[in-house]
Structure prediction request, 241 residues.
Amino acid sequence: MPFFKTTLSQTLRTCLLTACLSACSADPRFGAWELPKSTQFEEKSDHILVKNPSCERFDKGIVFYPGALVSAAAYIPLGAALAESCQLVVIAKMPFSLAILNADAGLALQRQYASQASVWTLGGHSLGGAMAAQLIKKAPDFKGLFLLAAYPAADSSLAASNLPVISISASQDGLATPAKINNNKQYLPATTEYLELQGGNHAQFGDYGPQDKDGQATISKAEQLRQTQQALVTWLKQIEN
Prediction:
């Protein structure tokens, strides 16, 4: 879902209206058999933990914020792809599936698993990414920010920060369009790494089916997942404590 640079009340009203009108499906559509055999996930009351039990230690800890009105479970395939390379992935469950209603959720989740990974990063998809960008300004325990089809609001600008950031977008995204991504680069650090997935769209960053007003992807869901995972793992290797 798109996110909006407005006040909290305006954004909430817009999100609730979108909940009534949107044609997208918020439910995950993958089968458990599609996940890497080396990974497993555990569903908790306020998050989903995804990990590779064979890892002697976790390379990085990741807290992930879902897009608006999308089930946290829709990001298990991405979490599992990252967990293959020994990343510990914590996918936040948001009230009414809206990260704006609990933007600080990542603080408690990181503290809960802090002992299992020495370096933590924060990020998310669409509205989830915008809320992650808002939180990270006051969360020094997170050493990097990743944005999937997302960008910060003006009042959450990170332009003066030296924080490692990666912005991954998609050429066919009808919501966080290439033009919007470009226009909002002013709110990210000058050192931000940008990657536009050619042929990808908004919904294929998760696994929840077609989304209203999105563009038509010309690459498969599996290929967009592969490219996203590869880019994130490469970026994560550069993050230091």
Remarks:
- The two ends are 32 Å apart (CA to CA).
